[in-house]
């Protein structure tokens, strides 16, 4: 799994700023990305969100068993 920290911006829900999240992967193991630079992520509480990819910072890479 790919782990990130979401930095957020002025219009982001304050509860998501600085929170760890994980990329939602396709069947071939790649991240789900939009044509406009967005990325689908899952936060710790199970909430799915589409966020701007530039506001994500990679923290670690985990192998899913």
Task: Write up this protein.
The chain has 65 residues and is an all-beta fold. 0% of the residues lie in helices and 42% in strands. A five-stranded antiparallel beta sheet has the order 4-3-2-1-5, with no helix packed on it. The model has no long low-confidence stretch (mean pLDDT 89).
Structural class: mainly beta
Report the end-to-end length measured between terminal Cα atoms. 10 Å
How does the overall form come out from the CA principal axes? globular
Biggest sheet layout: 5 strands, antiparallel
**Biggest sheet: strands side by side, in what order?**
4-3-2-1-5
**Number of helical regions:** 0
Radius of gyration: 11 Å
- The amount of helix comes to under 10%
Which stretches of 5+ consecutive residues score pLDDT under 50?
none
| Count of DSSP strands | 5
Mean pLDDT: 89
User: What is the H/E string?
Assistant: EEEEE
Strand content: 35-45%
Short structural summary:
The protein is mainly β. Helix content is 0%, strand content 42%. The protein starts with a strand and ends with a strand.
């Amino acid at each position: 799994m790919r782990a990130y920290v979401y930095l957020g911006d002025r219009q982001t829900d304050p509860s998501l700023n600085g929170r760890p999240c994980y990329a939602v992967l396709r069947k071939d193991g790649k991240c789900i990305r939009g044509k406009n630079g967005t990325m689908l992520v899952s936060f710790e509480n199970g909430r799915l969100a589409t966020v701007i990819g530039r506001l994500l910072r990679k923290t670690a890479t985990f192998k899913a068993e």
